[in-house]
């Protein structure tokens, strides 16, 4: 008899929640949020909770939500298509410069990052391009035609920071890293999504879903569970717009990786190949998939697709290990795994509890920011990545273990 590695949260009047959380903390508020979602009538079979699960805005981060006939825009969220990209190079640790600050500086110059702080200009922010390079133009050409179609339906999206955000990092927990694997090879890794235009798309359709609920007088356990029903105009428009935002996010990471490779080549004279092994995966998105013999919509809110043999990325924190993994195709998790370590406390709590000195000690050996502006990303604000990996052994196997030596935060 198969020994299951998940626990089941029973939900009165709803579907069960299968939780891969043994050995990791789960806050009661996150369980209540999961239970609320599980009560929705269109949930298919069950919800899957990953070991990095924690309370989120709109939906529980670290959850996999399969639905039939409806979609919850707030479950996808506003960072549509957020995800990871990593590429192994032929460089090794001994090829890195003694002064890693040179690498960090080159990366910060090559990839716009952060938000407006002090310097402001009309229609933009410090995290966008003043003059986008040709790599952005080439990528935007693949996105523009469909974006024009979407803007014809929702004109206000045209006034978002779209083209100038393509190939940029953002802020918060988005990052660019130089890492070393267990064999000493250098990896380039980054984390970002659909930036301002994805935020605008998500916010617009979250509000439309709430309006629909008011019009039809639908009672919800939480307003963030407002949904769009299949067959309606809003549903069709959202499916098109969210799909485009996910394309934008994937392209955003691809352009950043191109510019990251160029930045590294500008510091390291030795010729090298990149993309020896490469992964580009979403962890905030929705798509149609077939599970248990039926086509359903699967929303992964802070979760990664882990079909049998599929490669994925599970990052730790600024001072912890990250993993390149191979999926085992576990049907009970809807072929999913965690998207990271998962927070154990809010950003405001981390800032209250820790100091810059704590941040310096926690990121020893990593060339990165060590100031008050990144205390909310201190490693202690996250779950133990080793415990998270232990809890999902039946979801993925580890292919490479990475440790960062350079980290750029927005």
TrEMBL record:
Keywords of the record: GTP-binding, Ligase, Manganese, Metal-binding, Nucleotide-binding, RNA repair
Binding, GMP: 173-177, 283-284, 315-318, 322, 339-342, 409
**Residues that, per the record, bind Mn(2+) 1:** 79, 174
Record: residues binding Mn(2+) 2: 191, 283
Q: What class of enzyme is it?
A: ligase
Question: In the UniProt record, does the keyword tRNA processing occur?
Answer: no
Any single GO molecular-function term of the entry would be: RNA ligase (GTP) activity
Q: Which Pfam families match?
A: RtcB (PF01139)
**Which cofactor does this sequence's record say it needs?**
Mn(2+)
Instruction: Please write the reaction equations for the catalytic activity of this protein.
Output: a 3'-end 3'-phospho-ribonucleotide-RNA + a 5'-end dephospho-ribonucleoside-RNA + GTP = a ribonucleotidyl-ribonucleotide-RNA + GMP + diphosphate; a 3'-end 2',3'-cyclophospho-ribonucleotide-RNA + a 5'-end dephospho-ribonucleoside-RNA + GTP + H2O = a ribonucleotidyl-ribonucleotide-RNA + GMP + diphosphate + H(+)
Q: Which family does it belong to?
A: Belongs to the RtcB family.
User: Subunit comment for this entry?
Assistant: Monomer.
Protein name listed in UniProt: 3'-phosphate/5'-hydroxy nucleic acid ligase
Taxonomic source organism: Noviherbaspirillum autotrophicum
């Amino acid at each position: 008899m198969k020994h299951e590695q998940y626990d089941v949260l029973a939900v009165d009047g709803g579907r069960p929640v299968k939780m891969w959380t043994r050995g990791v903390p789960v806050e009661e508020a996150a369980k209540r949020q999961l239970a609320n979602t599980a009560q929705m009538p269109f949930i298919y079979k069950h919800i899957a909770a990953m070991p990095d699960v924690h309370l989120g805005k709109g939906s529980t981060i670290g959850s996999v939500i399969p639905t039939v006939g409806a979609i919850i825009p707030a479950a996808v969220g506003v960072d549509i298509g957020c995800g990871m990209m990593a590429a192994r190079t032929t460089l090794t640790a001994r090829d890195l410069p003694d002064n890693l600050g040179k690498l960090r500086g080159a990366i910060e110059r090559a990839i716009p990052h952060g938000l407006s702080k002090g310097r402001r200009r009309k229609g933009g922010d410090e995290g966008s391009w003043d003059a986008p390079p040709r790599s952005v133009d080439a990528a935007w050409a693949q996105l523009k035609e469909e974006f024009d179609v979407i803007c014809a339906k929702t004109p206000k999206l045209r006034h978002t920071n779209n083209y100038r955000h393509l190939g940029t990092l953002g802020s918060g927990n988005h990052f660019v890293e130089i890492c070393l694997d267990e064999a000493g090879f250098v990896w380039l890794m980054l984390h970002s999504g659909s930036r301002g235009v994805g935020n605008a798309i998500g916010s617009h359709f979250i509000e439309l879903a709430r309006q629909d609920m008011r019009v039809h007088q639908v009672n919800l356990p939480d307003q963030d569970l407002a949904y769009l029903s299949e067959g309606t105009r809003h549903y069709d428009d959202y499916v098109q717009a969210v799909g485009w935002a996910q394309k934008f996010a994937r392209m955003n990471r691809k352009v950043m990786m191109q510019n990251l490779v160029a930045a590294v080549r500008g510091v390291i004279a030795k010729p090298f190949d990149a993309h020896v092994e490469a992964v580009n995966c979403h962890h905030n998105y929705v798509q149609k998939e077939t599970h248990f013999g039926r086509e359903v919509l699967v929303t992964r809110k802070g979760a990664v697709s882990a079909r049998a043999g599929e490669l994925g990325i599970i990052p730790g924190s600024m001072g912890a290990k990250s993993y390149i993994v191979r999926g085992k195709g576990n049907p009970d998790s809807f072929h999913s795994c965690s998207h990271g370590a998962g927070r154990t406390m809010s950003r405001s709590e981390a800032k209250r509890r820790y100091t810059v000195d704590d941040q310096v000690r926690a990121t020893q050996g990593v060339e990165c920011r060590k100031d008050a502006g990144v205390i909310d990303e201190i490693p202690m604000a996250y779950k133990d990545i080793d415990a998270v990996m232990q809890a999902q052994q039946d979801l993925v196997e580890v292919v490479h273990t990475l440790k960062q030596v350079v980290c750029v935060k927005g």
